[in-house]
Structure formats: structure tokens, C-alpha cells
């Protein structure tokens, strides 16, 4: 009988992320992961101390996806505005593709090596452009928070009130009958909000020499970059 393929940490993390995507966070356990990988549960403990350690590895994998996309999409860009636009789009698109990982990342301490490296790299870029550290940190946090909030809204269950209840709320009813039938941010909404945020950052945080107001060349509105690097993580 042929020997089963050797279990790798990368394969385990990839499969754990797939379980989260397909079945939700309540389905992920060491036993469930072992079943999907067709291995015994004890074999997983050669790679992970426990479920918490596995979840840390999944969070790190998501951060590496984001970092890889940001690096790829900003390689030929020049200007903080274009770069922060890419940061926002990469965060939002990654968490829209893997919505269950958003809560996972938000509930865990920021200790992922990839997360720390990504933040450090972006801060270094802004500092290299003459930003002060407090202003650069605030700008990056604002952009990340906006993108993650937009991804959370996109992953929500939407609006499901019946017509009788809506009749008591005429302004809301009009909004649902118009441009936002499920009260979710669309692509145009996201890009509009991002432009407003970057305008505020340019006005209040960016150094005078770097106060760009016109959008830089980069990913066109509504075409967020692909965030999956070649290795699938």
C-alpha cells in the first residue's frame, strides 16, 4: 500500500482557510481539519500546538496574501495616495473573499509576523516620503480601518425587514427602493469614500510637500487587484 503524502504546515493552513470559507468558523477544529486532510488528529500537533496556534497561522496566511498583493500592485507606483489606495483595496478585497477571517483577525492580538511586517513596510514608505511618525501611523490606521469596515459591511447578511415594518420608516424605505437596496456599500461607494478619506489625509496629515489632491495613476476605481500570490497563500 502506498504511503500517504507527508503532511505539510502549508497544506494544513490552506485547508483550514478553505474550511473557514466554505463552512464558517464554527466548523473548524483540529478533528475536522484532520478529516479534510485525511490524516490523524495527532499528526497535526507536529505542526501546531493547538487550535489557537492554527488560527494564528491562518491569520498570518491572510496577512501574507495582503502583503503580496500590496507589493505587487505598488511596485511601479509613485506617491503616497496611490499606495494607500492600493492598501485599502487589497485589505477590502481579501476580507471580502475570506469574510470569516475578518472576525478572526480582529479578535486576535496583533502578533502575526506577516501583519507586523506589512505595517512596518508601509510606515517606512511614508516616513521615507517625509511624513512624521504620528501622522503616518494615523493615516495607515484610518485606511486599514475604513477598508476592513467596508469588507465587514459587504459580508453582512443584508436587509430583510418586511413591507409592513418598512412602512414605519419612510426615509429608509426610499433608500432601499433606490440606489442601495440591501444597505451595502457598492464599488462606487467604496471608491467615493476612499477618495474622501484620502482628501482628508492630504489636508490634515500629509506633509505640505506631499499634499496630493488629484488621484495618482494606479488601480482604476472598481478594479481592486487580485490578492492571491502564486503559492496560494
Automatic annotation (TrEMBL):
PROSITE patterns noted in UniProt: HTH_TETR_2
Limits of the HTH tetR-type domain: 6-66
InterPro entries reported for this sequence: Homeodomain-like_sf, HTH-type_TetR-like_transc_reg, HTH_TetR, Repressor_TetR_C, Tet_transcr_reg_TetR, Tet_transcr_reg_TetR-rel_C_sf
Low complexity biased stretches: 215-233
Alphabetic keyword roster: DNA-binding, Repressor, Transcription, Transcription regulation
Annotated DNA-binding residue span(s): 29-48
GO biological process: negative regulation of DNA-templated transcription; response to antibiotic
One GO MF term: transcription cis-regulatory region binding
Annotated stretches, region: Disordered: 208-233
Pfam families (alphabetical): TetR_C_1, TetR_N
Protein known as: TetR family transcriptional regulator
Amino acid at each position: 500500500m502506498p504511503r500517504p503524502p507527508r503532511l505539510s504546515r502549508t497544506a494544513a493552513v490552506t485547508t483550514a482557510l478553505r474550511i473557514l470559507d466554505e463552512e464558517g468558523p464554527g466548523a473548524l477544529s483540529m478533528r475536522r481539519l484532520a478529516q479534510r486532510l485525511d490524516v490523524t488528529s495527532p499528526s497535526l500537533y507536529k505542526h501546531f500546538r493547538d487550535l489557537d496556534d492554527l488560527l494564528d497561522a491562518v491569520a498570518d496566511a491572510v496577512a501574507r496574501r495582503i502583503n503580496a498583493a500590496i507589493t505587487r500592485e505598488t511596485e511601479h507606483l509613485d506617491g503616497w495616495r496611490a499606495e494607500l489606495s492600493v492598501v485599502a483595496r487589497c485589505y477590502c478585497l481579501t476580507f471580502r473573499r475570506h469574510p470569516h477571517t475578518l472576525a478572526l483577525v480582529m479578535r486576535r492580538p496583533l502578533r502575526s509576523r506577516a501583519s507586523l511586517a506589512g505595517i512596518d513596510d508601509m510606515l517606512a514608505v511614508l516616513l521615507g516620503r517625509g511624513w512624521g511618525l504620528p501622522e503616518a501611523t494615523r493615516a495607515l490606521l484610518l485606511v486599514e480601518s475604513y477598508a476592513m469596515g467596508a469588507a465587514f459591511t459587504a459580508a453582512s447578511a443584508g436587509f430583510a425587514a418586511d413591507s409592513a415594518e418598512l412602512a414605519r420608516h419612510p426615509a429608509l424605505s426610499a433608500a432601499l427602493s433606490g440606489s442601495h437596496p440591501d444597505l451595502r456599500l457598492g464599488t462606487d461607494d467604496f471608491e467615493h469614500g476612499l477618495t474622501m478619506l484620502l482628501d482628508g489625509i492630504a489636508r490634515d496629515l500629509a506633509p505640505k510637500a506631499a499634499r496630493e489632491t488629484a488621484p495618482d495613476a494606479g488601480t482604476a476605481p472598481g478594479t481592486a487587484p487580485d490578492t492571491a500570490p502564486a503559492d496560494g497563500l
